[in-house]
């Protein structure tokens, strides 16, 4: 049975593997903090060991170029039914969180470049925004095109 909601992570296609994984983890953790109901119950193995509950949603990690990512972020934020978390270049380059907030407060919104975006909401709405984006690792790279 398909879930009525969907969670998708999108990272910028020109990132090196380590930066892409870091960006996906940052937006995933930030999204998880906003949607605590996403975790399933803890489970026990046959030996009695307890394993922490996991997110029951599949979480595709997709890629988009910088312009596509900016557009996706902007369009998703316009939809009230979606929860959107962006990880931007200002945050990625900051030495600590206070440095990030200081720099961000002096950066016009149009100059905030996204590195990754997480989107959660009704399945059809999320799919409508992301269905044309390739999966990370599917052979699509911005510099290979």
Describe this structure in words.
- This protein has 145 residues and is an alpha+beta fold.
- It has 5 helices and 6 strands, in the order βαβββαβααβα.
- The protein has a 4-stranded mixed sheet with strand order 4-1-6-5, with helices on both faces.
- Strand 2 and strand 3 form a beta hairpin.
- The longest helix is centred in the first third of the chain and has 18 residues.
Outline of this structure?
With 145 residues, this protein is of the alpha+beta class. The protein has helices spanning 17-34, 66-77, 89-93, 97-105, 123-130; strands at 5-12, 43-44, 50-51, 61-64, 83-88, 114-122.
SS-based class: alpha+beta
- Which range best describes the helical content: under 10%, 10-25%, 25-40%, 40-55%, 55-70% or over 70%? 25-40%
Would you tell me the overall average pLDDT? 91
What is the chain-wise order of helices and strands?
EHEEEHEHHEH
The biggest sheet, with number of strands, parallel, antiparallel or mixed sense and barrel status, is:
4 strands, mixed
> What is the CA-atom radius of gyration, in angstroms?
16 Å
Q: Provide the low-confidence segments as ranges.
A: 141-145
Shape: globular
The total count of helices amounts to 5
Task: State the total count of DSSP E strands.
Answer: 6
Strand content: 15-25%
Distance between the termini: 37 Å
Strand order of the largest sheet: 4-1-6-5
